[in-house]
Amino acid sequence: MSSLAPLNQLVTRFQEQIPIRASSLIVTLYGDAIEPHGGTVWLGSLIQLLEPFGINERLIRTSMFRLTKEGWLTAEKVGRRSYYSLTGAGRRRFDKAFKRVYSSVVPQWDGSWHLAMLTQLSADKRKQVREELEWQGFGAISPVVLASPRADRTDINATLLDLDALEDTILFETTGQDVMASRALRAQVRESWRIEELGAQYSEFIQLFRPVWQALREQDSLQPMDCFMVRLLLIHEYRKLLLRPAPARRTAAGRLGRPRRTPAVPQPVSTDLCPGRTVAEQCDGNRRRPAARCQRKLLPALRRAALTCSACPQPSHAP
Fold this sequence. Notes:
The longest helix has 23 residues. The strands form three sheets. A four-stranded antiparallel sheet has the order 5-6-4-7. By secondary structure, it is an alpha+beta fold. It is globular, with a radius of gyration of 21 Å. 51% of the residues lie in helices and 12% in strands.
């Protein structure tokens, strides 16, 4: 248990989830701590890192098995030890999903929109394409028309090609226009991207982490494990905001395979609709201000968990 009461409250909140989302936290851990430090972890180290969160060894082993079965992870045995790394496909999905978690720069919007018309797809294929495009930040203007103010055409084409739907999906890009949003456009954005619901979730996020950041500012010295736990929980909760679960099938990765992204709706359209920009700035600022002190403590915590134990046999691809 930490000496920081707000951190203990965050951990308790995580533990009270029913069921506890161990797999989802493991995915966050891979993105924020394991991939940047070589990408391979011994199962024993992972168990040690997650023990302070109240996740038992059996649940961790079960979660790793599920993530491996779903194609996120690959395992390599070295003696009696199992080492886990992201698969190639898992890394590509992972990079795409986490790109916005660490991006604090929002490019200037020119008033153009990307539109996808699904009228030529079968009902089953339409559902599949809509689910994937919503994951990429599209909102439904109608059952057969989706729109996004910020979209990567290469990502869209690759997604449609993977779904064998590229030839039957009609894609448009509108020309730049006056970016000052009309009342009708603001109303459509509110409806298509469920802005009010999202705004409530952002506000909850701000209130959730305010006490722990205040406690960190008041500390003369910081414990490495406290810093590791605060950062991991912060990134985990922020990821859940940016990659909101759609009411589709679950995956071990916390539905990371099929979430609906928080929309990258430009400020002229979304101003006063929800505090998403405020949260993004606060999350980034929190990572840079008291978290700058935390960052210096993260590596000792990771080393203590022996992410790459030099005294142990290593898999052939470990650094």
